[in-house]
Amino acid sequence: MKRHTTGLAPLAAGLALLASGPAIAQGVPIPERDEAWLISAQGTATRSAHEPSTEYFMPGGSAGLGVYHSLSPYIQLGGRLSGIVVPADEAPPQGIESSGDLALGAFSGMMRVRPLADPWEQSRAGGLYIEAGGGPALVGDELSGAVDVGLGWNFSVSDVVALGPNLRYMQAFESDDRFVGDDPRIWMAGLEIALLGEVDPPVQPPADDERIDVHVTVNMPETERSTAMAYVDRDADRVDDRFDHCPEDKETFNRVDDHDGCPDTGAITLGDTDSDTVVIDEAVFFPFDEATLTEEGRAALLDVAAAYHQAEEPWDALILRGHTDTRGDAAYNAELSQARVDAVRTALVKMGLPERSIFTEAYGENAPLSDGETAMAHHLNRRVEFVIDR
């Protein structure tokens, strides 16, 4: 009776879950957003994995197509269709009866794990991935089963394309002797190209019956940088303690006061101080790299206008400050931030605020809230500030 290595699939799945443990155990808040579909295609060279088949079968080739849906930044589930051709040597070793080339097709249900994923990235295609699964396979004309394990690292080529090396192992189970008296066991090495896999920005649209949340920070800390001060984040919410109003309590990133580092406390209220600073994520107002207001942005401005009209004391002035992150050309970022605050000013005037009392300032990338080039730093730095003088 032929012995099959049936423990490979659960072992590979267990290793994949173990690999994801450190990333998940960090306690990093995962932004709630609609996850993405991902399409991957692989082209690989193949080689038999055991003796004496390595003497009988020559290197071959394979192709694979996978479709996955991400459940979180770390976990993806999907299916993969593989086709493998392993050509036989024209002169097999002595004592081995030739059975010709081997063709193998398999469809595998797969779990893909991205243990190093950053939950604030928009792409679900890049970086290290480990995957494992199994399903039906056709070995020649015999229907059997197979396990499939993969390891790779994709590098972003554009917003929707990633490319990188891919190493795979597949084992099919058969009762015949076409693979020189053992199960087909095949190594594959090549390239994967991954398409799509991009999620929405961290700030999510609210439900239709949910009030638009304006991000309010009263008496924000100074934003001047000190190169001598090391990065400190005691509550591990990725908001630097220099700018964190609640350094012992984690920020909850769900559109309410995302910039102040504090847990949400409910509906926002403007303070009674002489100057309030209202901070709203730029993703609420504008599509990527554009200065045209979205419908969600207009709804948020209606809240600002309502606060003006309902204020017990009239506002002496409203200063709009536009900020970008550090990516891209500095001059272009300054121009974009100016165009955006101009669009906000125009909309507020149409909502009844006096034009003479609204002033605009475009900072571009020159007044960040957070240092560094991380996805979290970029998220905090892209913003529109409303400075209210009473």
Give a quick set of tags describing it:
single chain, five-stranded mixed beta sheet, 2 domains, 390 residues, alpha+beta, disordered N terminus, Porin, 13 strands, 60s Ribosomal Protein L30, Chain: A
What is the secondary structure topology, with strand pairs?
Blueprint: H1 8-24, E1 37-48, H2 53-56, E2 60-70, E3 75-86, E4 102-113, E5 127-139, E6 142-156, E7 161-173, E8 185-196, E9 216-217, E10 275-281, H3 282-285, H4 295-310, E11 317-323, H5 330-350, E12 358-364, H6 375-381, E13 383-389
Parallel strand pairs: 11-12
Antiparallel strand pairs: 1-2, 1-8, 2-3, 3-4, 4-5, 5-6, 6-7, 7-8, 9-10, 10-13, 11-13
Q: What's the CATH topology name of the largest domain? A: Porin
User: Could you give the order of the helices and strands?
Assistant: HEHEEEEEEEEEHHEHEHE
- The number of helices is 6
- Share in β-strands: 25-35%
Report the top-level CATH class of the largest domain: Mainly Beta
Q: Kindly state the number of beta strands.
A: 13
Biggest sheet overview: 8 strands, antiparallel, barrel
Q: What coarse outline follows from CA principal-axis ratios?
A: elongated
Estimate nothing, just give the exact number of structural domains.
2
Give the low-pLDDT segments: 1-7, 22-29, 201-229, 265-275
Instruction: State the secondary-structure class.
Output: alpha+beta
Distance between the termini: 87 Å
Mean pLDDT: 75
CATH architecture of the largest domain: Beta Barrel
Computed over alpha carbons, the radius of gyration is: 28 Å
- What assembly state would you assign to the polypeptide chains in this entry? single chain
